[in-house]
Amino acid sequence: MNDIQLKISTIIPVYNAQQFLKKAVESVLQFDEVTEIILIEDGSKDNSYDVCRELELTNSKVKLFRHPNGLNKGAGASRNLGILKATGEYISFLDADDYYLPNRFDFERNIFNQNKNADAVYGALGVIFYSDAAKNKFKKVFSYNQSPDNFLTTISSDVKPEELFENLSGIKKSSGYFHLDCLTIKSFALKKLDYWFNEKLNLHQDTEFIIRLSYHLNIVSGNIKNQIAKRGVHDFNRITQVNVHSLHYNLNKYKLFSSLYDWSKNNKLDHKYQEHFKSVKKNYLFNVLWPVNNKASFKKRVSNLFKKILQHKINTK
Q1: Closest residue by Cα to residue 124 from 86, 167, 154
Q2: Are residues 75 and 130 in the same domain?
């Protein structure tokens, strides 16, 4: 039997990434199996669009798209547009300030050839710090035993595909999680989802997507011990701005699990899954309102919460 020749569309959402984008694209161009690099320029305020245009003009694999009227619609909407435009039999993703390593598709080639039932493959993500300040901020967000420079975002042990959903969703004790940069998926498998990325989520669209993906698809582990891509951490990453105790963080986590709860009901998942997502979303809502020292503080936090929820609904109409 002849080996499958992977034909991959790599989707890169671009927002204010002018200083990193060229490196990201060049890291993808090294792979013959990548037949197209789809840049979705998301209404950047810097010169990212000009960099995108230059990359498109200098390499036939690079294809540039924007939202109507050059609007900024967020990473979720940008990835959805990329999926719509993709023509490859496989899809991979890359953030514009990250980059692939030369071994990015080594395991994927073998797995997709040997395991015909595999819908997707994931691997491990490393990290590169562009400043000491970014490294220190990153350390406050992530707890780990390794040196920051050796930190891997990965499933730390082999998890059976049928157990991955409960692992990623927190129903069972987690063995970690994988990053979208290190996921390769068969394009036709995405038809099994009722929607792709939830465009109503300002944050955590990738987490929500991956959890739902693990329920519907047969996702197998690839290279989970060695990094196959690098996360670029700099002073302007959203991840380095995270305060896990803030109202903003807990509100966005609440929105994430509200989305998963709605999905679990609409897809008639087992009642225990629905109750899990319902419980977790309530927990984050509680954290939005608490701790409080007095009634005035409580009222202020409630008021702020409903203002943010109302604004979110207006922005997503």
Answers
A1: 154
A2: yes
- Chain segment 55-101, per-residue pLDDT in tens: 999 999 999 999 999 999 999 999 999 999 999 999 999 999 999 99
Residue 122: which of 146, 145, 152, 142 has the closest Cα? 152
pTM: 0.89
210, 225, 241 — which closes off a domain?
241
Please, are residues 73 and 43 in contact by the beta-carbon 8 Å criterion?
yes
pLDDT in tens, 14-61: 999 999 999 999 999 999 999 999 999 999 999 999 999 999 999 999
What torsion, rounded to 10 degrees, do the Cα atoms 39, 44, 46, 52 define? 20
Domain identity same for 34 and 172? yes
Say whether both 72 and 135 belong to one domain. yes
- Which residue among 208, 241, 274 closes a domain? 241
